[in-house]
Amino acid sequence: DSGVTQTPKHLITATGQRVTLRCSPRSGDLSVYWYQQSLDQGLQFLIHYYNGEERAKGNILERFSAQQFPDLHSELNLSSLELGDSALYFCASSVGPTGTDNSPLHFGNGTRLTVT
Amino acid sequence: DAKTTQPTSMDCAEGRAANLPCNHSTISGNEYVYWYRQIHSQGPQYIIHGLKNNETNEMASLIITEDRKSSTLILPHATLRDTAVYYCIVRVLNTGTASKLTFGTGTRLQVML
């Protein structure tokens, strides 16, 4: 058990809808990262937050947004969903922000999103 | 981040050591080597990381060559539960930069009876 909790485990929704995925980081971790894994793309970095502030963006679509709250949990919002958004979405957490902190990222077990 | 090259797949007999190689010939001085694995569709699991020296923990050993251009992850006594995709990742750590992990395609390790 990595200590990172993601809910829900599974989500099935229709095209055009909006969903929210939730992540609770490990106790003491201030950084949260979101990744997407689809069959043909592998693990793709989406976005990184540290202590409530956005720190880096990867291949995140404009239809997607995220935030990190004062209690450090994070939410990934996906809107105007398309069939191609079907994927596993993973959250990871680590202690530090950026820079010289080499502490590893610890991943949750993901949310499987199916768009029909 | 430096690019890594790993074999697509490897087999290992149960109980034997699994040695997974990784080439990172363009690694620079401030880049660490991390290893993760992903079992089926679970979240990636952290295994070990290092900068220059060899490292060992309860899961594995990491051997980094002196020139740091390649490394080997060693699972000393592989079991069926070690069947997974193993990712070797180099991660730059510099003040002011993002510290995300960039995953490649990894090595699919199959442990067999």
- Quaternary state, please? heterodimer
User: How does the major sheet of chain B shape up?
Assistant: 5 strands, mixed
**Helix content range of chain B:** under 10%
Rounded to an integer in angstroms, the radius of gyration calculated over CA atoms of chain B is 14 Å
Round the Cα radius of gyration of chain A to an integer and report it.
13 Å
β-strand percent of chain A reads over 45%
Class based on secondary structure composition and strand pairing of chain A: mainly beta
The secondary structure category of chain B is mainly beta
The unreliable regions of chain B are none
Principal-axis shape of chain B: globular
**SSE sequence of chain A, one letter per element:** EEEEEEEEEEE
Mean pLDDT of chain B, to the nearest integer, reads 92
Number of DSSP-assigned strands of chain A: 11
In words, what does this structure look like?
The complex is a heterodimer of chains A (116) and B (113). Chain A has 116 residues and is mainly β. Helix content of chain A is 0%, strand content 52%. In chain A, strands 2, 4, 5, 6, 9, 10 and 11 form a seven-stranded mixed beta sheet that branches. With 113 residues, chain B is an all-beta fold. Chain B is globular. The model of chain B has no long low-confidence stretch (mean pLDDT 92). Chain B has no helices and nine strands. Helices cover 0% and strands 46% of the residues of chain B. The N and C termini of chain B lie far apart (37 Å). Classes of the chains: A mainly beta (116), B mainly beta (113). Chains A and B meet through strand 4, strand 5, strand 9 and strand 10 of A and strand 4 of B.
Summarize the topology.
The complex is a heterodimer of chains A (116) and B (113).
Chain A lengths: L4 E3 L2 E4 L5 E6 L6 E8 L3 E9 L2 E5 L6 E5 L5 E5 L8 E8 L11 E2 L3 E5 L1
Parallel strand pairs in A: 2-11
Antiparallel strand pairs in A: 1-3, 3-8, 4-5, 4-9, 5-6, 7-8, 9-10, 9-11
Chain B lengths: L8 E5 L4 E6 L7 E8 L6 E6 L4 E2 L4 E4 L5 E6 L8 E9 L14 E6 L1
Parallel strand pairs in B: 1-9
Antiparallel strand pairs in B: 2-7, 3-4, 3-8, 5-6, 6-7, 8-9
